[in-house]
Amino acid sequence: MKNFHLPLPEQTYSNLRAEAERTQVPATVLAREAIDSWLRQQLRKARHDAIAAYAADMAGTKLDLDPDLESAGIEHLVKTGKAAK
User: Fold this and answer.
1) Would the pTM of this model clear 0.85, i.e. be above it?
2) Under a CB-based contact definition with an 8 Å cutoff, are residues 19 and 28 in contact?
3) Cα 84 to Cα 65: distance, rounded to the nearest angstrom
4) Helix 27-58 to helix 10-23 angle, to the nearest 10 degrees?
């Protein structure tokens, strides 16, 4: 484990201390969990963006989704009533 000094704005510090007191969890644990959660979210977003960029770049090329597979997937979604996110 490494230590990291992180100056916080007064309001952020007050909110963190209040939440630590309310939940009876050390503020350092709450801060670590919040940072870990944000970093995981950033990694997921970066992966999603990379996949979307690759798909856009490959659209219309021989690496694009097979038309028969795409049609089958659309047909399955229509039959099962599952909507895209």
Assistant:
1) no
2) no
3) 17
4) 110
DSSP string of the chain?
A: ---------HHHHHHHHHHHHHHT--HHHHHHHHHHHHHHHHHHHHHHHHHHHHHHHHTTSTTSPPHHHHHHHHHHHHHHTPPP-
> What gap in Å lies between CA 74 and CA 33, rounded to an integer?
39
Cα 46 from Cα 51, distance rounded (Å): 9
Nearest to 16 by CA among 38, 35, 43: 35
- What distance in Å separates the CA atoms of residue 82 and residue 58, rounded to the nearest whole number? 26
Q: State the 10-residue block means of pLDDT for the chain, 85 residues long.
A: 94 98 98 98 98 92 85 91 67
